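During the reporting period, our protein records have gained a C-alpha cell line. A sample record is set out beneath this paragraph:
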Amino acid sequence: MALIRIVAAVALAGRRVQLTLTDGRVIERDLAPLLTGPVFDQIRLSDQRFAELRVENGTLVWPDGADLCPDVLIWEGLPPAGSVSNAA
C-alpha cells in the first residue's frame, strides 16, 4: 500500500491549485495561507513565479527549491488514520 500523493497540479488564480491524486481524486486548495516566510516571498508576490509549480516526489515544488508538505496539501493537515491507498 502506498500513501496518497499528488501526480499532477495546475496553478489557478488567487494562489489556488488543482491537484490530481494517486487515488484519482481531483481537489482544489488555496495555498495563500501556506505561502509564508522568506522562502515563499517571490511565489507569493508573483503570479509568474507561482505558476512555475510542478510535481516532484508526490508534492508541489518550485524551481528555487521551495516545497510544501504533501499531507498538508492533500488533507489540509495530518492524514486521517487509515488513509493509505493501493493506488500507485
